[in-house]
Amino acid sequence: MDVLKPVLANEVVCRVPVQWFRHAVYRAMGMGLGQGSLIMGHTELIRPEGVRVGADCVIGRHCLLDGRGGLDIGDHVNVSSWTLLVAGSHDLADPSFPAVYRPIRIETYAWIGTRALVLQGVTVGEGAVVAAGAVVTGDVAPYAVVAGVPARPIGERPRGLSYRLGLRQPMW
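Below the sequence we write its predicted C-alpha coordinates.
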Protein backbone atom coordinates (compact mmCIF):
# COMPACT_ATOMS: atom_id res chain seq x y z
CA MET A 1 0.00 0.00 0.00
CA ASP A 2 2.86 2.44 0.78
CA VAL A 3 4.07 2.26 -2.81
CA LEU A 4 0.56 2.96 -4.11
CA LYS A 5 -0.19 5.94 -1.84
CA PRO A 6 1.37 8.59 -4.11
CA VAL A 7 -0.35 7.15 -7.16
CA LEU A 8 -3.72 6.91 -5.44
CA ALA A 9 -3.51 10.35 -3.82
CA ASN A 10 -2.13 12.27 -6.80
CA GLU A 11 -3.36 10.47 -9.89
CA VAL A 12 -6.76 9.21 -8.83
CA VAL A 13 -8.20 10.56 -5.59
CA CYS A 14 -7.32 14.23 -6.08
CA ARG A 15 -9.35 14.24 -9.31
CA VAL A 16 -12.54 12.81 -7.78
CA PRO A 17 -15.13 15.62 -7.77
CA VAL A 18 -16.80 14.42 -4.54
CA GLN A 19 -14.96 16.11 -1.65
CA TRP A 20 -16.26 13.85 1.14
CA PHE A 21 -14.87 10.82 -0.71
CA ARG A 22 -11.45 12.49 -1.22
CA HIS A 23 -11.34 13.42 2.46
CA ALA A 24 -12.22 9.87 3.56
CA VAL A 25 -9.45 8.39 1.41
CA TYR A 26 -6.91 10.96 2.63
CA ARG A 27 -7.78 10.10 6.24
CA ALA A 28 -7.49 6.38 5.46
CA MET A 29 -3.98 7.12 4.11
CA GLY A 30 -3.04 8.58 7.51
CA MET A 31 -3.58 12.29 6.89
CA GLY A 32 -4.94 14.32 9.81
CA LEU A 33 -7.86 16.44 8.57
CA GLY A 34 -9.78 18.59 11.02
CA GLN A 35 -13.52 19.07 11.20
CA GLY A 36 -14.99 21.47 8.66
CA SER A 37 -11.81 21.65 6.56
CA LEU A 38 -11.85 21.40 2.78
CA ILE A 39 -9.14 20.22 0.42
CA MET A 40 -10.16 21.19 -3.09
CA GLY A 41 -9.58 19.03 -6.13
CA HIS A 42 -6.26 18.45 -7.86
CA THR A 43 -4.21 19.11 -4.72
CA GLU A 44 -1.27 16.70 -4.57
CA LEU A 45 0.01 15.01 -1.42
CA ILE A 46 3.49 13.67 -0.73
CA ARG A 47 3.46 11.32 2.28
CA PRO A 48 -0.10 12.07 3.44
CA GLU A 49 0.63 10.45 6.81
CA GLY A 50 2.99 13.36 7.53
CA VAL A 51 0.32 16.00 6.85
CA ARG A 52 -2.00 17.45 9.50
CA VAL A 53 -4.61 20.05 8.59
CA GLY A 54 -6.48 21.65 11.50
CA ALA A 55 -10.17 22.50 11.77
CA ASP A 56 -12.00 24.98 9.54
CA CYS A 57 -9.25 25.27 6.88
CA VAL A 58 -9.46 25.68 3.14
CA ILE A 59 -6.74 24.25 0.90
CA GLY A 60 -7.21 25.53 -2.65
CA ARG A 61 -7.03 23.72 -5.96
CA HIS A 62 -3.76 22.48 -7.44
CA CYS A 63 -1.68 22.84 -4.25
CA LEU A 64 1.21 20.61 -3.19
CA LEU A 65 1.26 19.42 0.44
CA ASP A 66 4.59 17.74 1.25
CA GLY A 67 4.50 15.62 4.40
CA ARG A 68 7.99 14.08 4.08
CA GLY A 69 9.43 16.30 6.81
CA GLY A 70 6.10 16.91 8.49
CA LEU A 71 3.49 19.51 7.57
CA ASP A 72 1.34 20.94 10.35
CA ILE A 73 -1.38 23.40 9.41
CA GLY A 74 -3.28 25.03 12.28
CA ASP A 75 -6.97 25.93 12.50
CA HIS A 76 -8.70 28.55 10.29
CA VAL A 77 -5.89 28.61 7.72
CA ASN A 78 -6.43 29.57 4.08
CA VAL A 79 -3.92 28.04 1.65
CA SER A 80 -4.81 29.56 -1.72
CA SER A 81 -4.74 27.66 -5.00
CA TRP A 82 -1.47 26.72 -6.70
CA THR A 83 0.52 27.04 -3.45
CA LEU A 84 3.51 24.76 -2.84
CA LEU A 85 4.46 23.68 0.70
CA VAL A 86 7.74 21.78 0.13
CA ALA A 87 9.40 20.06 3.11
CA GLY A 88 12.24 18.44 1.16
CA SER A 89 15.52 19.58 -0.31
CA HIS A 90 19.12 18.37 -0.65
CA ASP A 91 22.31 19.03 1.31
CA LEU A 92 24.36 21.07 -1.16
CA ALA A 93 27.47 20.89 1.06
CA ASP A 94 27.59 17.09 1.03
CA PRO A 95 29.25 15.46 -2.01
CA SER A 96 26.65 12.67 -1.96
CA PHE A 97 23.81 15.28 -2.25
CA PRO A 98 21.48 13.53 0.25
CA ALA A 99 17.84 14.41 0.64
CA VAL A 100 17.01 16.55 3.68
CA TYR A 101 13.51 16.90 5.12
CA ARG A 102 12.45 19.49 7.70
CA PRO A 103 8.97 20.31 8.97
CA ILE A 104 6.76 23.18 7.88
CA ARG A 105 4.31 24.74 10.34
CA ILE A 106 1.50 27.08 9.32
CA GLU A 107 -0.10 28.49 12.47
CA THR A 108 -3.74 29.41 13.18
CA TYR A 109 -5.39 32.14 11.05
CA ALA A 110 -2.50 32.34 8.58
CA TRP A 111 -3.22 33.02 4.91
CA ILE A 112 -0.92 31.74 2.17
CA GLY A 113 -1.58 33.57 -1.11
CA THR A 114 -1.91 32.09 -4.59
CA ARG A 115 1.25 30.58 -6.10
CA ALA A 116 3.31 31.14 -2.94
CA LEU A 117 6.16 28.73 -2.18
CA VAL A 118 6.93 27.86 1.46
CA LEU A 119 10.16 25.89 1.88
CA GLN A 120 11.32 23.34 4.44
CA GLY A 121 11.94 24.30 8.05
CA VAL A 122 9.68 27.37 7.91
CA THR A 123 7.08 28.43 10.48
CA VAL A 124 4.44 30.89 9.31
CA GLY A 125 3.23 32.53 12.51
CA GLU A 126 -0.30 32.97 13.79
CA GLY A 127 -2.35 35.38 11.68
CA ALA A 128 0.49 35.98 9.23
CA VAL A 129 -0.08 36.57 5.51
CA VAL A 130 2.19 35.34 2.74
CA ALA A 131 1.43 37.38 -0.39
CA ALA A 132 0.71 35.78 -3.74
CA GLY A 133 3.85 34.61 -5.49
CA ALA A 134 6.12 35.00 -2.46
CA VAL A 135 8.96 32.56 -1.79
CA VAL A 136 9.30 31.96 1.95
CA THR A 137 12.75 30.72 3.00
CA GLY A 138 12.67 31.76 6.69
CA ASP A 139 10.17 32.04 9.52
CA VAL A 140 7.35 34.58 9.28
CA ALA A 141 6.51 36.42 12.50
CA PRO A 142 2.97 36.27 13.87
CA TYR A 143 0.63 38.78 12.15
CA ALA A 144 3.34 39.85 9.69
CA VAL A 145 2.51 40.37 6.02
CA VAL A 146 5.36 39.23 3.76
CA ALA A 147 5.86 39.48 0.00
CA GLY A 148 8.52 39.05 -2.64
CA VAL A 149 11.35 36.73 -3.59
CA PRO A 150 12.65 36.04 -1.04
CA ALA A 151 9.71 37.06 1.14
CA ARG A 152 10.26 40.18 3.29
CA PRO A 153 7.92 41.96 5.74
CA ILE A 154 5.77 44.65 4.12
CA GLY A 155 3.12 45.18 6.79
CA GLU A 156 1.24 43.81 9.73
CA ARG A 157 -2.21 42.34 10.27
CA PRO A 158 -4.57 43.25 13.14
CA ARG A 159 -4.83 41.01 16.23
CA GLY A 160 -8.02 39.35 17.43
CA LEU A 161 -8.90 37.45 14.24
CA SER A 162 -12.07 35.38 14.55
CA TYR A 163 -13.31 34.41 11.07
CA ARG A 164 -14.43 30.98 9.83
CA LEU A 165 -13.37 29.47 6.50
CA GLY A 166 -14.25 25.80 6.08
CA LEU A 167 -17.34 23.86 5.23
CA ARG A 168 -20.65 24.85 6.74
CA GLN A 169 -22.32 21.87 5.10
CA PRO A 170 -21.16 19.13 2.76
CA MET A 171 -20.78 20.17 -0.87
CA TRP A 172 -22.07 16.80 -2.16
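The chain has a mean pLDDT of 91.
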